[in-house]
Amino acid sequence: MPEPFRLGIAGLGTVGTGVVKIIQEHGALLAARAGRAIEIVAVSARNPLKERGIDLSRYEWVDDAQALAGRTDIDAVVELIGGSEGLARALVEGSLQAGKHVITANKALLAHHGYALAQCAEENSVCLSYEAAAAGGIPIIKALREGFAGNNIQAVYGILNGTCNYILTAMRESGRNFSEVLLEAQERGYAESDPSFDVDGVDAAHKLCLLTSLSFGVKPDFNSLKVKGIRRIDAMDITFAQELGYRIKLLGIARRLNGKIMQVLEPCLVPVDSPLGVIEDVYNAVYVEGDFVSTQLLTGRGAGEGPTGSAVISDIVDLARGQRIPAFGVVTTALKDAQWKPLGETVARFYIRLSVFDRAGVIADISAILRDMNISIESLIQRGRDPGQPVPIVLTTHESPQGAVMEACDLFSRLEAVVDEPCLIRIEDFK
Ligand SMILES: NC(=O)c1ccc[n+]([C@@H]2O[C@H](COP(=O)([O-])OP(=O)(O)OC[C@H]3O[C@@H](n4cnc5c(N)ncnc54)[C@H](OP(=O)(O)O)[C@@H]3O)[C@@H](O)[C@H]2O)c1
Predict the structure, then answer these.
(1) Which of 43, 56, 59, 80 to probe ligand 1 with, by most ligand atoms within 8 A of CB?
(2) Side by side, which strands form the sheet with 128-129?
(3) Beta carbons within 8 Å of 113's beta carbon, 6+ residues apart
(4) Which of 297, 311, 319, 373 would bridge with 131, disulfide CB 3.0–4.6 Å?
(5) pLDDT tens digits, one per residue of 33-81
(6) Residue 431: its pLDDT value, please?
(7) Which of 157-161, 256-260, 383-387 bottoms out in mean pLDDT, i.e. has the lowest?
């Protein structure tokens, strides 16, 4: 029997616990698949006394996770601490430099430092693996690096954050507002006590950044990604969207457009009965468009102990088998600087909701702005009359350049009768 594949695991929270459980429960299965035993040598977390519901007595406990990097009795370090800086970054860098493979679920670290870390892995002839960093249990990294290797990828897009999808689903089903539903999501453990990374779109943007790099062979570049979360989505928008035949979903979209790449993370309207429209609750879904494979949809649970642990294990088994694949699918010297398509130059249909005082001439003013910007209206809904109180006006546009629509919204907000910032949402029909 070949030597076991020896692991040091740093971080024993949701994901770390899941990884240990799978190794303990499926030892024989994993050994058969990997062709050698998978062995945990040492583990580390903050609190050695914490009850974690797993038996850790057979592993060495290490107080300082960074010490795992220098151990000679470990083949790979599994980093499941989290955070783009601090201990997680130091541990990953130190482990790669010490010639150890690294397996991580840390999308924040990779979105910010993925390129440098991939270079470091190459220089030290080891691998940086991160299947669990995007879409949890869905094997999207493997799909892009291996399964779709024969394709020129035209687009990758989807629902990449389960917390936001749960909130949007619950808002639609109950008619309640964002803040109420967020509170409930926190109580049920679907949202963190500090939910900003999720609801402001940052978590999904980290994942999109990695998918864009893998799909188009470009350096991951988080800072050039336009990110908008779901805080400003009103229950009213969800109702109007429904009336128009749409649902609101937080989407990450990356698409090749005339030699450039459009990349955006924002709430969008998608048709109610479309494959993304029916993805509800905490589920994730990722579409890949390849020139030969056509359109493929991968969907499933994007987070949690089991699905994320399962993704980490797939990396461990691959490495134990001896599989060596560059972090972003090609060697770092082959990764290009992306030419980003400015969003203003992209064309789409849009949903615009204005809150206006119902005075004579308001619709004429709005129409005049749209006419001057060469934007044509597809539908207009004006609901309710309440003298002295603002009422909503909702319109959808035909295909128009986003820059013109944004300028029109800016002009709307300067109209005396318009209160609040207009709510502007891209409509994605994915035709
Ligand atoms: N949760 C998910 O569903 C999910 C999905 C995909 C990706 N991820 C990613 O997976 C990683 C881990 O997430 P998680 O949800 O498992 O986090 P978590 O439950 O908060 O666990 C973090 C672990 O790191 C340990 N830790 C924190 N600071 C430490 C320090 N200074 N020294 C040593 N250990 C330290 C904690 O120790 P104690 O337990 O002793 O406090 C804990 O065991 C993150 O990068 C996250 O983005 C998570």
Answers:
(1) 80
(2) 60-61, 38-44, 5-10, 76-79, 101-104, 128-129
(3) 84, 89
(4) 311
(5) 999 999 999 999 999 999 999 999 999 999 999 999 999 999 999 999 9
(6) 65
(7) 383-387
Specify the DSSP class assigned to residue 201. S
Least confident of 119-123, 216-220, 338-342, 360-364: 360-364
C-beta of residue 44 within 8 angstroms of C-beta of residue 9: yes
pLDDT computed for residue 169 by the predictor: 96
Q: Give the tens place of pLDDT for each residue, 298-317.
A: 999 988 999 999 999 999 99
| 3-state class (DSSP) for residue 291 | coil
CA-nearest residue for atom 32, ligand 1, is 46
Q: What domains appear along the chain, each with residue ranges and CATH number?
A: 5-137+323-327 (3.40.50.720), 140-301 (3.30.360.10), 343-427 (3.30.70.260)
Q: How far apart are CA 308 and CA 316, in angstroms?
A: 13
- Ligand 1 centroid–CA 82 distance in Å is 5
What does pTM read for this prediction?
0.96
Annotation says 50 is catalytic: no
User: Rg for the chain (alpha carbons), in Å?
Assistant: 24
- Ligand 1 near 171 CB (within 6 A): no
Cα 162 from Cα 179, distance rounded (Å): 17
Residue identifier of the C-alpha nearest atom 38 of ligand 1: 46
Contact, 224 vs 263, CB < 8 A? yes
Return the structure tokens found at 28.
């024989």
Residue 141: is its pLDDT beyond 70? Answer: yes
Q: What angle do CA 175, 180, 184 make, to 5 degrees?
A: 105
Length of the chain: 431
What are residue 205's phi and psi, to 5 degrees?
Answer: -65, -40
The pair of three-digit structure tokens given for residue 331, joined into one six-digit string? 């060697």
Instruction: State pLDDT tens for residues 352-379.
Output: 999 999 888 889 999 999 999 999 999 9
Q: Are 221 and 338 within 8 A, CB to CB?
A: yes
Return the exposure string of 160-185: e unless at least 16 CB atoms fall within 10 Å of the residue's CB, then b. Answer: bbbbbbbbbbbbbeeebebeebbeeb
Q: Which atom of ligand 1 is nearest to the CA of 203?
A: 47
Supply the DSSP string of 370-402, one letter for each residue: HHHTT--EEEEEE----TTSEEEEEEEESSEEH
Neighbours of 116 (CB within 10 A): 13
Structure tokens at 41: 């040598």
Structure-token pair, residue 141: 């990294």
Whether the CB-CB separation of 148 and 298 falls below 8 Å is answered with no
